[in-house]
Amino acid sequence: MSDRMHLLLPLFSSVLYVFGALWVRRAADLGVGVWRTTFVANVFSAVLFAPLAVLGGPGQPLAMLWQPAVLAAVLVLGQTLGFLALSRGDVTVATPVLGAKTVMVAALTVGLLGLEVPARLWVAAGLSTGAIAVLSWSGRGSGRGVRFGLGAGLAAALAFALFDVLVQKWAPAWGAGRLLPLVMALAGAGSLGMIPLFREPLARIARPAWGPLAMGSVCIAVQGILLIGTVAVYGDATAVNVVYSARSLWTVLAVWGVGHWFRNSEQGLGGRVLGRRLVGALLMTVAVVLATVGG
After folding, report:
1. 100-113 and 119-136 helices cross at what angle (nearest 10)?
2. Does the pLDDT value for residue 207 go beyond 70?
3. Whole-prediction pTM
4. Contact predicate 49/184, CB 8 Å
5. CA distance 235 to 243
């Protein structure tokens, strides 16, 4: 039992993600915008990931700096698309769709290794497609919100899947304490390029919006430390991703039960719509388990 205790970290991470997503959506409703949200979140992540340097590692020569640079670029792309899905889409659609990342990781890993695609992966792909179909059937929900949640969420999932595969490939040679802080520092520095895209300067963010923005950024950063750090240190990527996929369920249940705490309008969609989204989240979770468990 003790050799699986590290799986409590991605479980806690999945809960933190839900609160981070709800705070980010609240900040969006208060007019923060995707670019400023992504910038602030990446700066928080760069600062909070820095202490992981104590984990150390062999490191790599300067000629290999292109690897963390590629990882940083892919991460920033994924973060931007993810925040776009959460800010302009429905949280109860975007988060379950982001769960498709694990199915994509399995497919990318199989493809990169040149192995035959197992039957369970095809079943998982079918279930995830069904989950997306259920989630897109929004009923009284916002059609625009569903489209944004699906489109941006799937694109973000693909970017995060590529990030996971590349981390698993390159982290052993670098060491977690060398690679991860460097990637986050580069992502934070690269986010400076977003400043010209700001609708207004950071100083013009309304005072009531800073609380949700800061809380969301901290939650997203800390859950990232727990998730990525667990994979880098323990290498148990399959089980870690299965446990982390619980965020799909937590999100729908959180919006249903405590969405009013965050003034989230999706709670007003009613039990029928949220019930369908819960079914979609369950289908996506089963797809993730099928894709990652078994031989």
Report:
1. 150
2. yes
3. 0.79
4. yes
5. 14
